[in-house]
Amino acid sequence: MDERLEHLKTLANIAREKYLEIKFSGKDLARKISRGAYGHQSSFMDIAVENSIIEHIENEDLPYNLFTEEAGKIDRGYKETIILDPIDGSYNAEHGIPFFSVSLAISKGSLSAVEVGLVKNIPQDVDYWAIKGEGAYKNGERIKTGSQTNLFVIYLGKNASEIAYRTAQKARRVRDLGCASLEMITVAEGIADLFMYHFKKRGALRIVDIAASTLIVREAGGMVLDENMKELEMKQDFSERKNVIAVSGSSVLEVLE
User: Fold this and answer.
1) Are residues 76 and 157 in the same domain?
2) Of 125, 143, 161, which marks where a domain is finished?
3) Based on CB atoms within 10 Å of each CB, which residue in 16, 78, 105, 171 is the most buried?
4) Could you tell me the residue range of the domain that residue 236 belongs to?
5) Do 202 and 99 touch, CB atoms closer than 8 A?
6) Beta partners for 160?
């Protein structure tokens, strides 16, 4: 087993334990206490979970730099960087909706350089992971994309583009679940045919949101593209946001024509 994957599993378990500790402490999970690296308001929950991960990395001197949603870039002098979203689907977590995750990916640079990725479904305590070139897994069982489930997972909030709404009209069933990393994984494990976050005025997602799940989808046999139907690539850059489309296979792209 790749030692890096074992490190990510440990960090994901720490994140879940910290979330549960906070949840049952009676503290206000949603209380905003600072601004994160992307300029958004960060909740007590986000900060506490991220700090628990950073503390473990530093105490154990794990050989990684960090690129995180809240703390930003932490250069520890290593070649590899953990790209971290401590709680993806924060609104769900703060309001008791059981669909949110911790997302961790190890990269030597950009999104295409991610070599190991893990997304933990925190409420269900389920791990999804991939190592580049070795396939995608759910709690140790191989997963693969399916075909023709006729379920699309599409963001349809106030920022959604006309393309998103038009695409939604072509599916038998549509879901909008509020956690991009886990929503992408519905494609990886053959539940959905298509995932789309497509905003009308700017890019929707950041590398911390989808670094791990992009590798998992690709290793499961799917495709992850940008709004121009090119293979998605992103830098470790806080200013960069992109619209993202994941599909189970090339045949699904016909609905976007």
Assistant:
1) no
2) 143
3) 105
4) 151-256
5) no
6) 199
Tokens of 215: 């590798």
For the four alpha carbons of 104, 226, 231 and 138, in that order, the dihedral sign comes to positive
Helices (H), the chain: 3-23, 44-59, 90-94, 162-168, 180-188, 207-219
Give the pairing of strands 126-131 and 244-247. unpaired
Contact 130, 137 (CB under 8 A): yes
- What pLDDT, in 10s, does the model give residues 105-143? 999 999 999 999 999 999 999 999 999 999 999 999 999
Q: Starting at the earlier edge strand, list the strands of the sheet with 151-154.
A: 173-175, 151-154, 194-197, 244-247, 223-225
User: Which CATH number do you get for residue 86?
Assistant: 3.30.540.10
The whole-angstrom separation of Cα 239 and Cα 157 is 22
Give Cα 136 distance to the centre of its chain.
15
Give the end-to-end CA distance of the chain in Å, rounded to a whole number: 42
* Beta strand pairing call for 151-154 and 173-175: parallel
Question: Could you read off the pLDDT of 82-104 as tens digits, one per residue?
Answer: 999 999 999 999 889 999 999 99
54-71 pLDDT, tens per residue? Answer: 999 999 999 999 999 888
| Predicted model pTM | 0.94
